[in-house]
Amino acid sequence: MAALVPGAFAVVTLGCASCTETGGGPGPSTGSQTATASAAGTFKSGIDRGAKVTQLAASFISTPGPVEMTDGKVHLAYELVLTNVAPAPVRVDRIEVHDVATAASVPGTTGRADLTPLLVGTEAEGVSDPGAGNTSVTIAPTTTYIAWVDVVFPQRSAVPATIEHVVSGAVLPPNAPPAPIQLRLGRMDPATDGPIVVGAPVPTGTWYVSEGCCADDTHHRRGFEPVNGVLEVPQRYAIDVFKLDDQHRTWVGDPSKLDSYLSYRQPILSAAAGTVVAAQDGLANNTEIPHPTNLASIKETVGNHVIVRLSDGVYVLYAHMDPGSVAVRVGDRVTRGQQLGLIGSSGISTTPHLHFQILSTPTYFPADSKPYAFDSFTLLGRITARLWDDNLGIQPTGALPFEAANPSSARTNQLPLDRDVVQFGS
C-alpha cells in the first residue's frame, strides 16, 4: 500500500490495477480460483478505487441548516475544521463548495471561507478569505485552522443534498519547489428541515440587531469553545438587540448610567409558546459602563436568563435580564408574547441589551446554535459601522451611523443580518 511519508507530498491513489479480488479473498487469484469464485458471486475490491491520502483532514462542528436572511438569499453557515497531517506546511489558496451529485461547483452561489487558527481566546478575525481570492493561508504541520464558511444560495431549492469541499493550494516541502494540490474533502449533508420560526422577543419599536450572522466577523459568529472536550460554536446565530429612537440613538444623557440606555428595562417577550426549563435571577448588572474593569466570570456569561423549551432539541435563550425582573420559574408554561423579564446588563454585558438565540440543548454550555427566523418585521436599514455593546457607550453621541433601506420593506420568515435595523410590530 502506498502512503504519505516524509518526502512524498503528492496525493496518492490507493489501488491495484492488475489485481483480481473477491469480497473476502486474501489477495491476487489464479485462473482456476477465478472460475470457482465466479460461480458463487462477483469479484470486488475491498478498497475504494477513488480513495486518496490527503494532506489535510477535515471535520465539522455541527450540521448546518439553511435560512433565508434579509438580503433575500438563503445562507448555509458552518465551520470546516482543517488539520495539516503532512510533514510539511500546506498553503491553502482557495476553498470551493461542490455539489456531490454533479461533482461541480454549486451553480448560482458565492462561498466565503475565512480561515483562522484554532486557538481559543485569540479572536483572530479576518485573517484571510481564500474563498474570495484574498491572501493565502499556510497551515503548519500538526496545526488546525477553522474555515468559517457562509455559502449563499439564490433560493432554498438550490441547496444540494450533499456537498463537499475542494481545497486548492500547495504543499511546501523544505528545499524544494511547492507541490500543487487539489483535495476533495469534507463531505456533508445539510439539514433538510427549515429554520424555527418565532415571533418578536421585544415590544413594538425600532431595534438594532447586532453581532448577527453570517458574513461579518462578529464575536457571536466567531466565538468557539471546547466544552467538555467538544468543540462548539454556541452563538453562531445569536443576536444582540438594542432599542433605538427616531434619531437612531441607543442612549440619551450620560452613557455611564444604565437608565440612559433606551433598552434598559424594556420588556422581554416570549417569542413562542413553550415550557421554562431554566430561569436564573439575582445576578447584579454590570454598572461599570462604558469602561468595565471587572466583567462576570464565564459561568455567568448570560447573566440572569430564561430558557424555554419549544420541542425536542429546540430551546430559546433570553439573556442579560435586569436583576429581580425574571417573571417565570422552571416548569411554567408560557405563551407567545408573555413577558419573561426586563432587559438589563447582567453577566458578560457592557451596556443593556437582549441576547437572543435558539439552542439545541437546555443549557448555554454545552450547546449548539440553530438557525431561526422571525415571522414578520420591517427592514428599515442598517448601521454602517460595526458597533456592539462594548463600544456603544463610547460613541461621541448616542446616535449611530444609519443608512436607510431603499425602500423599507416588510419581511416574513427571515433572519436579520448583522447590523440590520428593524421595526418589530406595527
Protein architecture, described:
The chain has helices at 31-40, 219-222, 389-392; strands at residues 12-13, 52-53, 56-60, 67-68, 74-84, 90-99, 104-105, 110-117, 137-139, 144-153, 163-171, 179-188, 196-198, 205-210, 225-227, 230-232, 239-244, 267-269, 274-280, 304-311, 314-321, 333-334, 339-342, 354-359, 369-370, 372-374, 377-383, 402-411, 420-424. With 426 residues, it is mainly β. It folds into three domains: 1-53, no CATH class; 56-188, Immunoglobulin-like (Sandwich), CATH 2.60.40; 196-424, Glucose Permease (Domain IIA) (Distorted Sandwich). Strands 14, 17, 19, 20, 21, 22, 24, 25, 27, 28 and 29 form an eleven-stranded antiparallel sheet that branches. Strands 3, 4, 5, 8 and 10 form a five-stranded antiparallel sheet that branches. The longest helix has 10 residues, at 31-40. The chain starts with 11 loop residues before the first strand and ends with a strand.
Q: Tags for this entry?
A:
globular, 3 helices, Glucose Permease (Domain IIA), 426 residues, disordered N terminus, 5-stranded antiparallel beta sheet, 29 strands, Immunoglobulin-like, 38% strand, 11-stranded antiparallel beta sheet, single chain
Distance between the termini: 68 Å
Strand percentage, roughly? 35-45%
Global geometry: globular
Judged by helices, strands and strand pairing, the structural class is: mainly beta
Q: Could you describe the largest sheet, including whether it forms a barrel?
A: 11 strands, antiparallel
The percentage helix is under 10%
- CATH superfamily membership of the largest domain: Glucose Permease (Domain IIA)
Query: pLDDT average, as an integer?
Result: 86
